[in-house]
Write a structure and sequence with these properties.
By secondary structure, the chain is of the alpha+beta class. A five-stranded mixed beta sheet has the order 1-2-3-4-5, with helices on both faces. A hairpin with a 4-residue loop joins strand 4 and strand 5. The chain is elongated, with a radius of gyration of 32 Å.
Length: about 180
């Protein structure tokens, strides 16, 4: 199609429509970027305010604040190769002679243990930090939940085969000695 064959007023309308479409698209992209940055800022401010409320709540409940934004590094092996994992928890707190990692959450979903990300984070904290447990702090509801995971080390250990073998050998030795002296 030859654009020179179009009447000038139609060409002006097409160019104006294209310019308007470009302007609307540019505004939409700019608005989306602004809104994303604004949402991140609001979440960050909400989280910071939640952490301040949580610290007071933990103190009111009798916990001692041992550290804020406590960092730890632990190692895992992937295909036999060591990989260092760095973590940062909101609080390390004490209660008597016990220590806990306290993770502060705000919003609707994050403070719930059935939220997969929260649950996995707390489980990782429980494993990575040398603590007696983890606390999930719902800053907005002002509630602290003690979360317990069924870890293998905390369950009562089952006797190993070697322990059964040694117990059997000891019983056998006692029985043999008793039989030898009874005749």
């Amino acid at each position: 199609m030859d654009l020179r064959a179009l009447p000038p007023d139609v060409l002006i309308v097409l160019l104006a429509a294209a310019a308007l479409l470009a302007l609307v698209q540019t505004a939409r992209i700019a608005w989306r970027g602004f809104w994303r940055r604004r949402t991140i800022t609001i979440r960050r401010e909400r989280g910071a305010a939640g952490e301040l409320r949580a610290e007071g709540l933990l103190r009111d409940l009798g916990y001692t604040i041992l550290g804020r934004q406590v960092a730890v590094s632990y190692g895992v092996h992937v295909d036999g190769e060591p990989v260092a994992i760095d973590l940062r928890a909101d609080y390390l707190v004490g209660w008597g002679d016990k220590r806990f990692v306290a993770e502060v959450k705000t919003g609707r979903a994050a403070p719930r243990i059935d939220t997969p990300g929260t649950r996995r984070q707390l489980l990782e904290y429980r494993i990575a930090f040398d603590v007696d447990g983890v606390l999930l702090v719902d800053a907005e509801a002002e509630r602290v939940h003690a979360v317990e995971f069924p870890l293998g080390a905390s369950e009562s250990p089952r006797p190993s085969r070697l322990a059964w073998l040694l117990a059997g050998a000891a019983i056998g030795a006692v029985a043999a000695a008793a039989a030898r002296f009874s005749f």
